Amino acid sequence: MAMTEGGYSESESVPALALSGVERTYRQGDSALHVLRGIELEMKPGEIVGLVGPSGAGKSTLLHVAGLLERPDTGTVFISGVDTTRMDDGERTAVRRRQIGFVYQFHHLLPEFTALENVSLPQRIAGLGQDVAEERAGELLTFLGLGERKTHRPGELSGGEQQRVAIARAVANAPHILLADEPTGNLDPDTAEYVFDILLRLVHGTGLAALIATHNLEFAERMDRRVTLREGKLIEL
Question: Is Ribonucleoprotein among the key words of this record (predicted)?
Answer without folding.
Answer: no
